[in-house]
Design brief:
Elements (H helix, E strand, L loop, with lengths): L9 H8 L5 E5 L21 H11 L4 E4 L4 H8 L5 E4 L4 E4 L2 E5 L6 H13 L5 E4 L4 E4 L7 H15 L3 E6 L2 E6 L4 H9 L8 E6 L5 H9 L3 E5 L9 E3 L2 H14 L11
Parallel strand pairs: 1-2, 1-10, 2-3, 10-11, 11-12
Antiparallel strand pairs: 3-4, 4-5, 6-7, 7-9, 8-9
Helix pairs in contact: 2-8, 4-5, 6-7
């Protein structure tokens, strides 16, 4: 299994980033660039967003990446024809500059776990299994009454798979992911690479799965932005909804000058 080691230059990056005005922008996808949908395949991306991100990437000197639980292939499809730097599957995949730089191997016996999840879904209406090969998610948004039973199944699956896998809980979902993968580690790794190093990181997300990313950018003197106000968070700024974020991104893409102050709320 591939493990991303925090590069030695991260400490110097922290020192520089606290003083730098130029930012590096990291964006979650579900619940951030798009509204949460009843099922994973139902999400819809505003057609203006991908071109806006392309414009912002140019303005930021290339320092823009998606950091998501989705696979890279799915995000490419949603954002086509544009291709961005992406940390997919909670950091288990990282592509930068068009090159796949890191990808964890599928945990041993993950196929067995997925078969158990599918059996559970087949016998419970509203349960959805999202098989991502390297990871696997169980959704109960359409069957909230099954939350406890679904979580119990996922906890048992994680225990059976062993220390190489951790259980990542989110909004009406739980996911089995490689233990070495996290959004925080992925952001730290990207921040130590040319094009990102020396900038002030800004990470925008909406869920429990984004908290370690918020913790990482806070430690770097960056800005953490959480979409929604439904729970406690390490994020230092709140935005009401993906719509509010979309307004900021579209305006900045058109008028230029995206900075940390762009996210300040009156």
């Amino acid at each position: 299994m591939t493990t991303l080691i925090e590069p030695a230059t991260v400490q110097s990056t922290r020192d520089i980033a606290a003083e730098a005005e130029q930012i590096a922008l990291f964006l979650d996808f579900d619940g951030t660039l798009v509204e949460i949908a009843p099922s994973p395949e139902d999400v819809q991306l505003d057609r203006r967003v991908a071109p806006a991100l392309e414009s912002l990437r140019s303005q930021l000197g290339g320092a823009l990446a998606l950091v998501s639980g989705r696979p890279i292939a799915f995000l490419d499809e949603m954002l086509a024809p544009h291709r961005f730097d992406i940390a997919g599957l909670h950091g288990a995949q990282i592509r930068m500059g068009g090159e796949l730089r890191s990808q964890s191997e599928a945990p041993e016996h993950m196929r067995d776990a997925v078969r158990d999840l599918v059996r559970f879904a087949n016998s419970h209406v509203g349960i959805i299994v999202e098989d991502k090969r390297i990871s696997a998610a169980l959704h109960w948004r359409l069957a909230p009454g099954l939350k406890d039973e679904a979580l119990d199944l996922m906890r048992k699956a994680a225990a059976k798979l062993g220390p190489g896998v951790r259980l990542q809980e989110g909004k009406s979902v739980a996911e089995l992911v490689p233990a070495s993968a996290s959004k925080g580690v992925a952001i730290a790794w990207l921040m130590a690479t040319p094009g990102y190093a020396g900038r002030r990181p800004v990470f925008i997300g909406d869920d429990i799965t984004d908290e370690d990313g918020f913790e990482t950018v806070n430690a770097m003197g960056g800005l953490s932005v959480r979409i929604g106000a439904d729970r406690e968070s390490l994020a230092t700024i709140r935005l009401a909804s993906p719509t509010a974020l979309r307004h900021i991104l579209l305006e900045a893409a058109e008028n230029g000058g995206l900075t940390t102050s762009s996210f300040a709320q009156d």
